[in-house]
TrEMBL record, chain A:
It is found in: Cell membrane. The keyword 4Fe-4S does not apply. It comes from Nitratireductor pacificus pht-3B. InterPro entries: ABC_transp_permease. This is Inner-membrane translocator.
From TrEMBL, chain B:
Its main location: membrane. This is Inner-membrane translocator. It comes from the Bacteria. It holds the Pfam family BPD_transp_2. It is found in: Cell membrane. The chain crosses the membrane at residues 12-37, 57-79, 115-133, 145-165, 206-225, 253-274, 280-299, 306-324, 330-349. GO terms for molecular function: transmembrane transporter activity. InterPro entries: ABC_transp_permease.
């Protein structure tokens, strides 16, 4: 029973840790499926987290925080779009630039506005997305096995957690069952064909990067308003890149993206849990190895040792209309 | 990095457009300064004064610039092969391990001038080794080098923390760093050069690796524009298909270009590790690998552009430190914003002002554009 309880706690923190990855990876999915590579997920998420923390601190409303986060990261997404769609600049370079601009300006503005060493003030309960208890969670808590699963694992997360997991089937539906989704995927594979059909490649790609902005804004809000009570400097700590890794790991498909994020979240939760305790058979695993594992797995995958990750064919290539 | 745009006179292409891009980047940075309630002109004045005002400051500026020359060259060599090496940060970090291993092994038995070439080799070897795996996967397995080098930055960070905490840290010490190198592992300072020019330098970490950086810049120029290998690298950069048709092995050229790039990034570690701190510390690279991207873009991947661009970023780093003293609202992170803006305007948006510049030049002197275009086709 003790083992079972530990497992539930471990899975519970897996869910919490994988949500920002999931939101960011789904964000990247829209953009990259439309043929716009985005390594600026990290920066947009960070800027979103800062905007969420700052707006929620000023207005004491979590929803205002979420709105501000989405606005700021959509703005950065549009900058990326302006550079890589309108001006046909290098998408990688533009993503790198956005990461730096976000990293620097969140610290500078945070220090200038709140004077707490780059963090935003601690948020009151109203300024955060609190835990939502699912109905009957307390009543079934004592039922063996299923009780703890329902009461601990499924219930008691914030709104954004449920939203993130609902966005997985939604994204699948948008991509594979709507006209917009069909065109979005087509523009990532063969923009010339889409253009020939009389559909604007630029406008489609712009809409895709706007979706990316909205989702990275949500990912940032989750970090600042649900997981923590406010923004802390450099709080994304590389999660945008792990999300990118998860996206590649899942071969740019929504449902596998969820499992990849859960896997990386589990690795993280597991690393925190086993810190300092030796494992059977293997002995003591260094924390650093566990931290590096998502990156190592991604490299191994990219090298084609676990299946093959084939990116959208037109990814990274600016579209030039023939003249 | 090819530009499918109309030809411009060379002075506009290599002088005017980068200058316009840089000015716009600083203009936007000025807006950020205004947003935090400070006067951008006063900030700029403090920054320049802090970077060049006294001998001491110049020495620091050149110390930072040394690191950026190495990382800028590293990014540039890969750019010429149309590879984007974002892994300079990790390669430099692992390169530091090479420097430390050499210094720890020989610092008590050999003088610095024997240890130095060994340390250069160690840094280059370790940096190149760290670039080799992504290069190999790109060349043979087709995995995107941008993603793998990003991943390798994180893996390098974890690996180095592990090594410093568990292997390299002396048993008696708490801090995760190696022991301090003895005299054999310390590079001589170059402050006397500045003093000979009439500046007074109390103590600054400006050291011999600056000269090595200048030498590396010259050698990169020779390599890229005056050797067969450089020609093949550039050919692969312009058109992989043409290179293959001309009999250049794609695998070989990708791996070689990345090895050179990684070696240059690794050599950056000499400057802080052997030249200044005289020990290997956690996070000693502090973003220099990423600054290299901005430096290479600003310097148009040419050593003659990279050296001044690196010195400019050295000024920003040193002047930024002074600025943080004078204006408490502006911390050193302002540099990170400027760096991002330079990458954005000189890199991703490099063509934004091209049409208007071209129109302006065409109006002022139609012959310049037309004549150059014909010449360009010939060359």
């Amino acid at each position: 029973m003790d083992f079972f309880n530990t497992l539930i706690l471990l899975l519970d923190s897996t869910v919490r840790l994988s949500v920002p990855l999931l939101l960011a990876a789904l964000a990247g999915l829209y953009s990259e499926r439309s043929g716009v590579f985005d390594i600026g997920l990290e920066g947009k998420m960070l800027a979103g987290a800062f905007a969420a923390g700052a707006a929620a601190a000023v207005t004491a409303s979590a929803w205002a925080g979420l709105g501000a986060a989405i606005m700021v990261s959509v703005f950065l997404a549009l900058v990326h779009g302006f550079a890589s769609i309108t001006h046909r600049g290098n998408q990688i370079v533009s993503g790198v630039a956005i990461n730096f601009i976000a990293a620097g300006s969140t610290i500078i503005l945070g220090q200038a506005w709140f004077r707490q060493g780059g963090r935003t003030p601690s948020l009151p309960a109203d300024g955060r997305f609190g835990a939502i208890e699912l109905p009957f969670a307390d009543a079934v808590r004592d039922v063996p096995i299923l009780g703890p699963i329902y009461a601990e694992l499924l219930s008691g997360h914030s709104l954004l957690v449920y939203a993130a997991f609902l966005l997985v089937p939604f994204t699948w539906w948008v991509l594979f069952r709507t006209r917009f989704g069909l065109r979005l995927r087509a523009v990532g594979e063969n923009p010339a064909a889409v253009d020939t059909a009389g559909i604007s490649v630029s406008w489609l790609r712009y809409r895709a990067v706007i979706c990316t902005g909205i989702l990275t804004g949500m990912a940032g809000s989750y970090l600042a308003l649900a997981q923590n009570a406010g923004f802390v400097k450099d709080m994304t700590a590389g999660r945008g890149f792990i999300a990118l890794a998860a996206l590649i790991f899942a071969k740019w498909k929504p449902v596998p993206v969820m499992f990849a994020c859960l896997l990386f979240g589990f690795l993280d939760a597991f690393a925190i849990r086993i810190q300092g305790t030796p494992l059977p058979l293997i002995g003591q695993v260094p924390v650093q190895f566990m931290q590096a594992l998502p990156y190592i797995l991604t490299v191994v995958l990219l090298a084609g040792f676990i299946g093959k990750a084939i990116p959208p064919r037109a990814g990274g290539v600016p579209y030039v209309k023939e003249r | 990095m090819s530009a499918p745009y109309a030809k411009l006179p060379a002075w506009a292409d290599y002088g005017l457009i980068p200058l316009i891009n840089l000015c716009v980047a600083f203009l936007v940075a000025g807006l950020v300064v205004m947003l935090v309630g400070e006067n951008p002109f006063r900030a700029a004045a403090i920054l320049v004064e802090g970077a060049l005002g006294r001998g001491q400051n110049i020495a620091y500026t050149l110390y930072y610039a040394t690191s950026f020359i190495f990382t800028g060259l590293a990014v540039a060599v890969a750019f010429h092969c149309s590879l984007f090496n974002i892994g300079g940060e990790g390669q430099a970090y692992v390169g530091g391990l090479g420097v430390a291993v050499v210094c720890l092994a020989f610092d008590s038995i050999l003088p610095w001038w024997v240890v130095f070439p060994l340390a250069v080799a160690g840094a280059a070897l370790f940096g190149a080794a760290w670039a080799f795996i992504p290069a190999y996967f790109q060349a043979r397995r087709g995995s995107h080098i941008v993603i793998t080098t990003i991943m390798f930055n994180f893996i390098a960070a974890s690996l180095m923390v592990y090594l410093l905490v568990n292997v390299l840290k002396p048993a008696t010490s708490q801090a995760p760093q190696t022991r301090t190198f003895l005299e054999g592992g310390q590079l001589p300072k170059l402050n006397f050069v500045l003093e000979a020019l009439g500046f007074s330098v109390r103590s600054a970490p400006f050291n011999l690796s600056f000269l090595l950086a200048l030498l590396a810049a010259f050698l990169v120029w020779v390599l890229i524009w005056r050797t067969r290998l450089g020609y093949e690298i550039r050919m692969r950069g312009f058109s992989p298909k043409a290179a293959r048709y001309a009999g250049v092995s794609d695998t070989k050229i990708v791996i070689v270009a990345m090895l050179i790039s990684g070696a240059l990034a690794g050599m950056m570690a000499l400057n802080p590790v052997m030249g200044d701190q005289n020990r290997l510390q956690i996070d000693f690279v502090t973003g220099a690998g990423f600054v290299g991207i901005a430096v290479a873009l600003m310097g148009r991947s040419h050593p003659a552009g990279i050296v001044p661009a690196a010195i400019l970023f050295g000024m920003l780093y040193q002047g930024g430190a002074e600025l943080a003293f004078e204006m408490p609202n502006i911390s050193r992170d302002m540099i990170v914003i400027i760096q991002g803006l330079v990458i954005l305007f000189a890199g991703a948006l490099e063509h934004m002002f091209r049409p208007s510049v071209q129109a302006a030049i065409a109006t002022l002197s139609p012959r310049a554009v037309g004549a150059e275009a014909r010449q360009g086709e010939g060359g």
